[in-house]
Design goal:
By secondary structure, the chain is mainly alpha-helical. The chain has a domain of about 240 residues: Orthogonal Bundle (Photosynthetic Reaction Center, subunit C, domain 2), CATH 1.10.468. The chain is built from eleven helices and two strands. Strands 1-2 form a two-stranded antiparallel sheet. Strand 1 and strand 2 form a beta hairpin. The C terminus is likely disordered.
Protein backbone atom coordinates (compact mmCIF):
# COMPACT_ATOMS: atom_id res chain seq x y z
CA UNK A 1 0.00 0.00 0.00
CA UNK A 2 1.17 3.51 -0.74
CA UNK A 3 2.50 5.09 2.46
CA UNK A 4 -0.09 7.32 4.09
CA UNK A 5 -2.90 6.16 1.77
CA UNK A 6 -4.75 4.41 4.56
CA UNK A 7 -4.73 7.49 6.75
CA UNK A 8 -5.88 9.65 3.83
CA UNK A 9 -8.78 7.32 3.02
CA UNK A 10 -9.74 7.22 6.69
CA UNK A 11 -9.74 11.01 6.78
CA UNK A 12 -11.96 11.19 3.69
CA UNK A 13 -14.35 8.70 5.27
CA UNK A 14 -14.58 10.76 8.45
CA UNK A 15 -15.30 13.94 6.49
CA UNK A 16 -17.92 12.16 4.36
CA UNK A 17 -19.59 10.74 7.45
CA UNK A 18 -19.67 14.17 9.06
CA UNK A 19 -21.21 15.75 5.97
CA UNK A 20 -23.78 12.96 5.78
CA UNK A 21 -24.66 13.48 9.44
CA UNK A 22 -25.10 17.23 8.93
CA UNK A 23 -27.29 16.61 5.85
CA UNK A 24 -29.50 14.06 7.64
CA UNK A 25 -29.85 16.14 10.80
CA UNK A 26 -30.70 19.36 8.95
CA UNK A 27 -33.36 17.69 6.80
CA UNK A 28 -35.44 16.52 9.77
CA UNK A 29 -38.26 18.77 10.93
CA UNK A 30 -38.06 20.20 14.42
CA UNK A 31 -40.26 19.81 16.33
CA UNK A 32 -41.33 16.42 15.03
CA UNK A 33 -44.58 16.35 12.99
CA UNK A 34 -47.75 15.23 14.77
CA UNK A 35 -50.54 13.06 13.40
CA UNK A 36 -54.29 13.28 13.99
CA UNK A 37 -56.21 10.10 13.16
CA UNK A 38 -59.16 10.83 10.85
CA UNK A 39 -60.39 7.33 10.05
CA UNK A 40 -60.31 3.71 11.11
CA UNK A 41 -56.96 2.32 12.21
CA UNK A 42 -54.99 0.61 9.49
CA UNK A 43 -56.21 2.68 6.54
CA UNK A 44 -53.58 5.41 6.86
CA UNK A 45 -56.13 8.19 7.31
CA UNK A 46 -53.99 10.53 9.36
CA UNK A 47 -53.55 14.30 9.10
CA UNK A 48 -49.86 15.15 9.51
CA UNK A 49 -48.79 18.63 10.55
CA UNK A 50 -45.81 20.41 12.08
CA UNK A 51 -46.52 22.45 15.24
CA UNK A 52 -43.95 25.04 14.18
CA UNK A 53 -45.80 25.68 10.91
CA UNK A 54 -49.12 25.87 12.75
CA UNK A 55 -47.81 28.76 14.83
CA UNK A 56 -46.65 30.53 11.67
CA UNK A 57 -50.05 30.13 10.03
CA UNK A 58 -51.87 31.26 13.17
CA UNK A 59 -49.88 34.50 13.16
CA UNK A 60 -50.56 35.04 9.43
CA UNK A 61 -54.31 34.47 9.72
CA UNK A 62 -55.36 36.94 12.37
CA UNK A 63 -58.32 39.04 11.32
CA UNK A 64 -57.99 42.84 11.41
CA UNK A 65 -59.99 45.00 13.78
CA UNK A 66 -63.38 46.06 12.42
CA UNK A 67 -64.95 49.48 12.59
CA UNK A 68 -68.16 49.60 14.67
CA UNK A 69 -71.33 48.76 12.76
CA UNK A 70 -73.59 51.70 11.95
CA UNK A 71 -77.39 51.84 11.72
CA UNK A 72 -79.30 51.33 8.48
CA UNK A 73 -81.42 54.40 9.23
CA UNK A 74 -80.87 57.64 7.42
CA UNK A 75 -80.35 58.74 3.82
CA UNK A 76 -79.28 56.06 1.35
CA UNK A 77 -75.91 56.18 -0.36
CA UNK A 78 -77.52 55.83 -3.78
CA UNK A 79 -79.43 59.05 -3.18
CA UNK A 80 -76.67 61.12 -1.59
CA UNK A 81 -73.79 60.04 -3.86
CA UNK A 82 -73.59 59.73 -7.64
CA UNK A 83 -72.86 56.55 -9.59
CA UNK A 84 -73.32 54.10 -6.71
CA UNK A 85 -74.26 51.04 -8.75
CA UNK A 86 -73.97 48.20 -6.21
CA UNK A 87 -74.29 49.46 -2.63
CA UNK A 88 -76.86 52.24 -3.09
CA UNK A 89 -79.32 50.58 -0.66
CA UNK A 90 -76.97 51.13 2.29
CA UNK A 91 -77.25 54.09 4.59
CA UNK A 92 -74.55 56.73 4.20
CA UNK A 93 -72.99 55.52 7.47
CA UNK A 94 -72.96 51.87 6.39
CA UNK A 95 -71.59 52.78 2.97
CA UNK A 96 -68.78 54.93 4.40
CA UNK A 97 -67.81 52.24 6.92
CA UNK A 98 -67.62 49.59 4.20
CA UNK A 99 -65.57 51.82 1.88
CA UNK A 100 -63.12 52.59 4.70
CA UNK A 101 -62.86 48.88 5.52
CA UNK A 102 -62.25 47.87 1.90
CA UNK A 103 -59.47 50.48 1.76
CA UNK A 104 -57.65 48.88 4.70
CA UNK A 105 -58.25 45.36 3.35
CA UNK A 106 -57.07 46.04 -0.19
CA UNK A 107 -55.08 49.28 -0.52
CA UNK A 108 -53.89 50.57 2.85
CA UNK A 109 -51.00 52.41 1.19
CA UNK A 110 -52.92 53.87 -1.76
CA UNK A 111 -56.00 54.84 0.24
CA UNK A 112 -59.14 56.10 -1.50
CA UNK A 113 -57.03 57.33 -4.43
CA UNK A 114 -56.18 53.73 -5.37
CA UNK A 115 -59.67 53.37 -6.89
CA UNK A 116 -61.05 56.90 -7.04
CA UNK A 117 -60.21 60.17 -8.68
CA UNK A 118 -60.38 62.15 -5.46
CA UNK A 119 -61.35 65.28 -7.39
CA UNK A 120 -64.47 63.48 -8.64
CA UNK A 121 -65.24 60.34 -6.64
CA UNK A 122 -68.21 59.45 -8.86
CA UNK A 123 -66.36 58.97 -12.14
CA UNK A 124 -65.04 55.59 -13.32
CA UNK A 125 -61.81 56.83 -14.89
CA UNK A 126 -59.63 54.42 -12.92
CA UNK A 127 -59.76 50.75 -13.91
CA UNK A 128 -59.33 49.80 -10.26
CA UNK A 129 -62.74 51.25 -9.43
CA UNK A 130 -64.45 49.21 -12.17
CA UNK A 131 -62.65 46.08 -10.97
CA UNK A 132 -63.48 46.77 -7.32
CA UNK A 133 -67.18 47.12 -8.16
CA UNK A 134 -67.17 43.73 -9.88
CA UNK A 135 -65.25 42.20 -6.97
CA UNK A 136 -67.88 43.41 -4.50
CA UNK A 137 -70.49 41.72 -6.68
CA UNK A 138 -68.38 38.57 -6.70
CA UNK A 139 -68.12 38.52 -2.91
CA UNK A 140 -71.88 38.93 -2.60
CA UNK A 141 -72.36 36.10 -5.10
CA UNK A 142 -70.12 33.74 -3.13
CA UNK A 143 -71.84 34.51 0.16
CA UNK A 144 -75.36 34.27 -1.25
CA UNK A 145 -75.08 31.45 -3.78
CA UNK A 146 -72.23 29.22 -2.61
CA UNK A 147 -73.12 28.45 0.99
CA UNK A 148 -72.56 24.84 -0.08
CA UNK A 149 -68.87 25.71 0.09
CA UNK A 150 -68.41 28.74 2.36
CA UNK A 151 -71.26 27.81 4.73
CA UNK A 152 -72.11 30.66 7.12
CA UNK A 153 -68.46 31.71 7.44
CA UNK A 154 -68.54 33.54 4.13
CA UNK A 155 -65.83 35.70 2.60
CA UNK A 156 -64.87 39.36 2.48
CA UNK A 157 -62.31 41.23 0.39
CA UNK A 158 -59.78 40.59 3.16
CA UNK A 159 -60.11 36.81 2.77
CA UNK A 160 -58.04 37.00 -0.42
CA UNK A 161 -56.31 40.39 -0.37
CA UNK A 162 -54.85 40.50 3.17
CA UNK A 163 -53.84 44.14 2.75
CA UNK A 164 -52.50 43.74 -0.81
CA UNK A 165 -53.97 45.35 -3.96
CA UNK A 166 -53.43 42.01 -5.73
CA UNK A 167 -53.92 38.81 -3.70
CA UNK A 168 -50.70 36.89 -3.11
CA UNK A 169 -52.07 33.73 -4.71
CA UNK A 170 -53.48 34.25 -8.19
CA UNK A 171 -52.55 32.61 -11.47
CA UNK A 172 -52.32 33.20 -15.21
CA UNK A 173 -52.32 30.69 -18.03
CA UNK A 174 -48.65 29.83 -18.42
CA UNK A 175 -46.97 29.45 -21.81
CA UNK A 176 -45.70 25.92 -22.33
CA UNK A 177 -41.94 25.60 -21.91
CA UNK A 178 -39.79 24.71 -24.90
CA UNK A 179 -37.76 21.82 -23.51
CA UNK A 180 -36.18 20.50 -26.68
CA UNK A 181 -35.32 23.58 -28.69
CA UNK A 182 -37.80 23.15 -31.53
CA UNK A 183 -39.25 20.51 -33.78
CA UNK A 184 -42.20 18.21 -33.25
CA UNK A 185 -41.17 17.48 -29.65
CA UNK A 186 -41.03 21.14 -28.64
CA UNK A 187 -44.33 21.21 -26.74
CA UNK A 188 -45.10 19.65 -23.40
CA UNK A 189 -47.73 19.92 -20.69
CA UNK A 190 -45.18 21.34 -18.29
CA UNK A 191 -43.72 18.25 -16.61
CA UNK A 192 -40.34 18.68 -15.03
CA UNK A 193 -40.68 22.43 -14.51
CA UNK A 194 -41.28 22.75 -10.76
CA UNK A 195 -43.37 25.66 -9.57
CA UNK A 196 -44.48 26.75 -6.11
CA UNK A 197 -48.18 26.49 -7.03
CA UNK A 198 -47.91 22.68 -7.11
CA UNK A 199 -45.38 22.34 -4.29
CA UNK A 200 -42.39 22.27 -6.67
CA UNK A 201 -43.31 18.84 -7.97
CA UNK A 202 -42.35 17.62 -11.45
CA UNK A 203 -46.02 17.35 -12.47
CA UNK A 204 -47.59 19.69 -15.08
CA UNK A 205 -47.29 23.17 -13.60
CA UNK A 206 -50.55 24.55 -15.02
CA UNK A 207 -53.43 22.24 -14.16
CA UNK A 208 -55.53 25.35 -13.52
CA UNK A 209 -56.30 26.33 -17.11
CA UNK A 210 -57.83 22.96 -18.10
CA UNK A 211 -59.47 22.22 -14.75
CA UNK A 212 -60.26 25.49 -12.93
CA UNK A 213 -60.92 27.73 -15.90
CA UNK A 214 -62.20 25.12 -18.30
CA UNK A 215 -64.06 22.07 -17.06
CA UNK A 216 -61.82 19.10 -17.86
CA UNK A 217 -62.64 15.99 -15.82
CA UNK A 218 -60.76 15.77 -12.54
CA UNK A 219 -60.67 12.00 -12.61
CA UNK A 220 -58.17 9.15 -12.82
CA UNK A 221 -59.86 5.86 -11.99
CA UNK A 222 -62.18 4.07 -14.34
CA UNK A 223 -65.66 3.10 -13.25
CA UNK A 224 -65.38 -0.45 -14.61
CA UNK A 225 -62.56 -3.00 -14.42
CA UNK A 226 -62.66 -3.60 -18.17
CA UNK A 227 -60.15 -2.65 -20.87
CA UNK A 228 -61.16 0.33 -22.96
CA UNK A 229 -63.71 1.69 -20.47
CA UNK A 230 -61.51 4.45 -19.01
CA UNK A 231 -61.09 7.11 -21.67
CA UNK A 232 -58.98 9.45 -19.53
CA UNK A 233 -55.45 9.98 -20.84
CA UNK A 234 -52.13 9.89 -19.02
CA UNK A 235 -51.91 13.67 -19.57
CA UNK A 236 -55.25 14.15 -17.83
CA UNK A 237 -54.09 11.92 -15.01
CA UNK A 238 -50.99 14.06 -14.55
CA UNK A 239 -53.10 17.22 -14.52
CA UNK A 240 -55.32 15.61 -11.88
CA UNK A 241 -52.37 14.70 -9.68
CA UNK A 242 -50.94 18.22 -10.05
CA UNK A 243 -54.28 19.75 -9.03
CA UNK A 244 -54.54 17.41 -6.03
CA UNK A 245 -51.05 18.47 -4.91
CA UNK A 246 -52.23 22.08 -5.20
CA UNK A 247 -55.31 21.32 -3.07
CA UNK A 248 -53.19 19.68 -0.38
CA UNK A 249 -50.66 22.51 -0.31
CA UNK A 250 -53.30 25.27 -0.39
CA UNK A 251 -55.20 23.84 2.58
CA UNK A 252 -52.21 22.49 4.52
CA UNK A 253 -53.69 18.99 4.62
CA UNK A 254 -53.05 15.43 3.42
CA UNK A 255 -55.00 13.59 0.73
CA UNK A 256 -56.95 11.92 3.54
CA UNK A 257 -58.58 15.21 4.47
CA UNK A 258 -61.06 14.42 1.69
CA UNK A 259 -60.32 10.84 0.60
CA UNK A 260 -60.29 7.42 2.24
CA UNK A 261 -56.90 5.95 1.39
CA UNK A 262 -58.34 2.45 0.92
CA UNK A 263 -60.36 3.66 -2.07
CA UNK A 264 -59.60 7.19 -3.19
CA UNK A 265 -62.36 7.31 -5.79
CA UNK A 266 -65.21 5.95 -3.68
CA UNK A 267 -67.50 8.78 -2.56
CA UNK A 268 -69.27 6.59 -0.01
CA UNK A 269 -65.98 6.10 1.88
CA UNK A 270 -64.81 9.71 1.57
CA UNK A 271 -65.02 12.36 4.26
CA UNK A 272 -67.68 15.15 4.19
CA UNK A 273 -64.91 17.58 3.21
CA UNK A 274 -64.76 15.97 -0.24
CA UNK A 275 -68.30 17.20 -1.00
CA UNK A 276 -67.37 20.67 0.26
CA UNK A 277 -64.31 20.61 -2.00
CA UNK A 278 -66.48 19.55 -4.98
CA UNK A 279 -68.62 22.64 -4.53
CA UNK A 280 -65.44 24.68 -4.16
CA UNK A 281 -64.21 23.50 -7.56
CA UNK A 282 -67.54 24.48 -9.09
CA UNK A 283 -67.36 27.86 -7.37
CA UNK A 284 -63.81 28.61 -8.57
CA UNK A 285 -64.74 27.75 -12.17
CA UNK A 286 -67.78 30.00 -11.91
CA UNK A 287 -65.79 32.94 -10.54
CA UNK A 288 -63.04 32.62 -13.13
CA UNK A 289 -65.53 32.39 -15.98
CA UNK A 290 -68.19 34.94 -15.05
CA UNK A 291 -66.35 37.52 -12.98
CA UNK A 292 -62.64 37.53 -13.72
CA UNK A 293 -62.36 36.67 -17.41
CA UNK A 294 -65.04 39.25 -18.15
CA UNK A 295 -62.60 41.93 -16.94
CA UNK A 296 -60.11 41.21 -19.71
CA UNK A 297 -60.86 44.51 -21.44
CA UNK A 298 -60.61 46.53 -18.21
CA UNK A 299 -57.13 45.71 -16.92
CA UNK A 300 -54.12 47.50 -18.44
CA UNK A 301 -51.53 45.36 -20.26
CA UNK A 302 -49.19 45.43 -17.26
CA UNK A 303 -51.79 43.54 -15.21
CA UNK A 304 -52.29 40.77 -17.77
CA UNK A 305 -50.49 37.45 -18.10
CA UNK A 306 -48.22 36.16 -20.91
CA UNK A 307 -51.28 35.17 -22.97
CA UNK A 308 -53.09 38.45 -22.29
CA UNK A 309 -55.41 36.84 -19.73
CA UNK A 310 -56.43 38.29 -16.37
CA UNK A 311 -55.33 36.99 -12.98
CA UNK A 312 -57.61 34.19 -11.80
CA UNK A 313 -58.30 32.38 -8.55
CA UNK A 314 -57.59 28.91 -7.23
CA UNK A 315 -57.85 27.32 -3.80
CA UNK A 316 -54.76 29.09 -2.45
CA UNK A 317 -56.28 32.52 -3.20
CA UNK A 318 -58.66 32.24 -0.24
CA UNK A 319 -57.15 29.47 1.88
CA UNK A 320 -53.56 30.71 2.00
CA UNK A 321 -52.25 27.40 3.36
CA UNK A 322 -54.91 26.59 5.99
CA UNK A 323 -57.88 24.22 5.88
CA UNK A 324 -60.36 27.06 6.41
CA UNK A 325 -59.60 30.65 5.38
CA UNK A 326 -58.64 32.63 8.49
CA UNK A 327 -59.11 29.35 10.40
CA UNK A 328 -62.86 29.63 10.01
CA UNK A 329 -63.30 33.01 11.73
CA UNK A 330 -66.17 34.81 10.01
CA UNK A 331 -65.66 38.44 9.12
CA UNK A 332 -68.81 38.66 7.03
CA UNK A 333 -70.99 38.47 10.14
CA UNK A 334 -69.93 42.01 10.95
CA UNK A 335 -70.28 43.08 7.32
CA UNK A 336 -73.78 41.92 6.34
CA UNK A 337 -73.63 44.27 3.33
CA UNK A 338 -71.41 41.67 1.67
CA UNK A 339 -73.72 38.74 2.29
CA UNK A 340 -75.75 39.39 -0.84
CA UNK A 341 -78.03 38.84 -2.57
CA UNK A 342 -75.86 38.93 -5.64
CA UNK A 343 -76.42 41.87 -7.97
CA UNK A 344 -75.04 40.24 -11.12
CA UNK A 345 -76.89 37.56 -13.08
CA UNK A 346 -74.92 34.29 -12.92
CA UNK A 347 -75.40 30.65 -13.68
CA UNK A 348 -76.73 28.58 -10.80
CA UNK A 349 -74.20 26.37 -8.98
CA UNK A 350 -74.03 22.81 -10.23
CA UNK A 351 -75.36 19.91 -8.19
CA UNK A 352 -73.18 16.97 -7.10
Amino acid sequence: MIPGLGQALAGVAVVAAALLTVTVVTTFDRPAPETVQRGFRGVAMGLVYNPREVQTYLAANKIPASLPQLPAAGPKAGVVYKNVQVLGNLSVGQFTRLMASITTWVAPQGGCAYCHNTANMAEDSKYTKVVARRMIQMVQHVNADYKSHVQETGVTCYTCHRGNPVPANVWFTDPLPNRFGGGVAATSTGEGHPTAAINNSALPYDPFTPMLENAADIRVQGEQALPGTNRHSIQQTEWTYALMVHFSQSLGVNCTYCHNSRSFGDWSQSTPQRVTAWYGIDMVRNLNDQYLNSLGGVFPPARLGPHGDVAKVNCATCHNGVYKPLFGVSMVKTFPELQGPTTLATAAPAKP
